[in-house]
Amino acid sequence: MKSWLTTTDHKRIGLLYFWTAFGFFLIGGLEALIIRAQLIKPDGGLGVSAETFNQLFTMHGTTMVFLALMPLSAAFFNFIIPLQIGARDVAFPRLNAFSYWVFLLGGLFLNASFLAGPLFGADRLSVAPDAGWFGYANLTSRQFSPGPNVDFWLLGLQILGIASLAAGFNFIVTILNMRAPGMRMLRLPVFTWMTLVTQFLIITAFPVITVALVLLMFDRFFGTHFFVPQGGGDPILWQHLFWMFGHPEVYILILPAMGVISEVLPTFSRKPLFGYTVVVYSGVVIAFLGWSVWSHHMFSSGLGPIADSVFAGTTMLIAIPTGVKIFNWIGTLWGGQIRFTTSMLFALGFIAMFIIGGLSGVSHASAPADLQQTDTYYVVAHIHYVLFGGTILGLFAGMYYWWPKMTGRMLSETLGKLHFWLTIIGMNLAFFPMHFSGLLGMPRRIYTYSSELGVSRFNELSTIGAFIIGIATLVFFWNLLRTRWQPITAPNNPWGGSTLEWAIPSPPPVYNFTVIPTVASRMPLWRTERHAPMTPLPEQPPAPIHVPGGSWWPMITATGLPIMAIGAISRTLPIVFVGVAVLVVGIYRWAFEPFEM
Amino acid sequence: MRLALAALLLLVAGCVGGHHPQTIFAPRSDFSHELDGLFKNIFWWAVVVFLLVETLLLIAIARFRARPGAPEPKPIHGHTVLEIGWTLAPALILVFIAVPTMRTVFDTAGRAPEGALRVQVIGHQWWWEYRYPTLSISAYNELHVPVGTPIQVELTSGDVIHSFWVPALGGKRDLIQGRTNRIAFKADSTGEYWGQCAEFCGASHANMRLRVFVQTDSQFQRWVDGQRASPATPAKGSPAEAGQAVFKRSACIGCHTIEGVAQGKVGPDLTHVAGRTTIAGALFPNTTESLHRWIMNAPSLKPGALMPPQNLSPQDLDAIVAYLQSLK
Amino acid sequence: MRYDTQEHAAAVAHGHASFMGLDNRKMAFWAFIGSECLLFGSLISTYLVYKGRSLTGPFPHEILNIPFTSFSTFDLLMSSLAMVLALAAVQRGDMKQGKIWLFVTALLGLVFLGGQYWEFSHFVREGLGLTTNLFGSTFFVLTGTHGAHVTVGVIWLLTLWVQALRGKLGPANAMTVEITGLYWHFVDVVWIVIFTVVYLIQ
Prior knowledge:
heterotrimer, A: 597 residues, mainly alpha, 63% helix, globular, C: 202 residues, Four Helix Bundle (Hemerythrin (Met), subunit A), elongated
């Protein structure tokens, strides 16, 4: 137990991220199921109150984006990246642990709001955030959101931002500086490449939302008027700051999954990735262009025709590198020998579903047409096709692919296929009808709708689909759990993959590589036209490898942050100071701790 | 998949089966017709791309299944001509979408021609206020406009951000405190069109609905005259007269305006409430029963509503309802 | 220098992997500085968006004291010079000079902070507070964030100074001083931008 609290081993941290994120994924899923249950019928639904519903959709979005999807990707960043680049760990192992603990504590702080009502004299148990995951001003001002709900949101997100930023610096240095000899940038696995691009997006986008949240915090705590019209503030400024973060954020969410399937498709087609350099550069281009499109989330805000045209144009432009990737993935399949393992099924599902999400995205790009789509269920359809059909299917592909490497045990292919088919059926049943309910006039974020709109049947279908997804996820959860009782039998390379992580045992020894390999090609484990496969690494290291011990300081330092947040939300300055003290002492002890890489 | 596609086509073709009062596919103004044309353009391109790409995917999956004993696949790393091709082709399709888009952006930017009828929309949690500055009248939740006349809608908010959306008449625009946004449209058919707030605005966002009545010039003029007219004094001894007395001594006057009777500024003006087909932000039909339930306990029907439950005796309640029903 | 060579393999074997030839900590710090640019950029953008939109006074031209702030700016610039001298001294092993210049850097930083404190309390007395108007809000949040960064820097410098006094700082760990220098110069550059945008361009 102690070893888990003090671990700085990237593999253990990866597993911690995985299980914590999966737990939050289940919570976010439960929130979705209650939402869908409420919407199964019109005119009041099943009786879920408006206040509860508004908390549910706010927490569903916030949880899925920040506590499930990003950390699930982080689980793979942690476990797999050092293995793919031939390193023994990340550049800053203790900082890595720190990121995990901050994430866990931030997630707990945010979810504590569900039970914190009595502490704030509320008339209900839950004071969970209720102003949407996007928290638009001036609904979030003290005047219109007087309770602690929005405070939980803005404090929780600031804590989580620190976790992501720290990890961002860590992985950038790791990927750039800790590659094995011979691993030039254009020999990096695409997953590593997409991770690198994602980390740059994180370290540039998160400061912007940090500023937005700090300004909102000042409005709510200290009475400034950054977003309060009566004081001269402009609610639109919030939208600009939020979406300047928010748009790169969606690329942060999708690029890692795109990286995963860029590994899975070649392995199970027994062919190299088609157009490696194009796939890599298109990812870089997407990251740059991703900074130029943010106001396409604001087409109904009245920015004016010039701004609308510019953002419509840049948004259409970004469809091009995205589409190019899809063609290259299909090119990878073409002429291959395709094995339909569960991982591969999910990767293929990603392509099929992401096309749909991408096309509805193109319809959003046209600013005037978007005026009939934005803020309706049509957008909900779009985001779930790209985030569920895209990111989540991609992450499942990664889970089935890398589970043997991470745990030494194989997941059941039978259960896996059941999971896949239930998921595909469930998600299409849930989200495809939303295109209709949206265009037939059903706005988003409503706890009930009129029976006279004629969208009741579509809502029924969506609810059924959502519950099928729930069942599918439980099947998956069972598949994961059963492996705990299996012996460790997975071989080094169960799938015949080409990248370095498959050159070592499953699970890897604590030092990863007995000898750091020298890399001569993009696919070290495969025979290519110019290179023989890499010679197998020795079974035992030639000399003892020093592995750093753990440290308490990352976890202890991390606790300073939620303590500060508790002090802030309860308006008790002494507690804030205690939190600062914990942070400062933790940092000092960490800095002066003897710790060797 | 194919079944879904067929259903979609049917829907886009103008809709069969069922009444859809907020559909975007029944445009009734120049603004919504433009958006409809743009969407159809994009939709058909999307169908073409969808069929093409998904078919390629399916062919790849079917044709290149692993077969036992098959030789190792040829390790093809890329193909420059293909890359250029499948970069330029989508770019070209996007041009076909971008050009009409840009044109429509400027055509629908919201500036109505000179002489358009001005309507100011002020959003509140959770009801709509309309002012006609050139006609010196105001209306609430239900908007009336003449057919075939350019309308200049000017949108702002009295509190948080809302969004004015009547799909049949055009796209949505947000109502933001401190700013004025604009919609310009000219309705081409008389009728009753439904809309709803489309920007999350708090507890009863789902309950902030509206109706637009597009009328002939004479119908519109009659409505305007009615709005300008002072409310008739209730007949002596009538239930309405009793109701007016109850109204004057109840909490109602703190929030509502009735011309000559009360000047409350928190809730909607009730001077002509009987002329509306709905109440409570177009949430309920304007019937005796609805009025009873609403007045007795508004927050239970519309969460967060600022109108507190009323402690009225059944007779007082009947009287007030009768009074409100006299305010045509 | 290419590191995908035998040299690199040897370096890796000795546990000093650095593919790009840059110390890990230094690279991480540059990434951090990039991130901080976005942070300050967002705050400065907010200041610029709200420039001229305060509903009430006091207004910038009424209250900003350019001569005084020019002196603060000069002080911070001199502190960067002191930082450069401190690093050079540590790198060549002259710890006596190193200690002096580290201390001077921190001291000049404290002078800057003192000046900020004096200036801010003067503004408050003149009627410009955090919540008075948009100018007050954007000004204090921007300069306050910068001041917090300077404070962290001063604490960091004094910590190094104490380390030096204990004989624990020397050319072998000059990298730490170099990174401190990077932080300090960054904070100085940010101040130049703030000074220009807020004080000089009105």
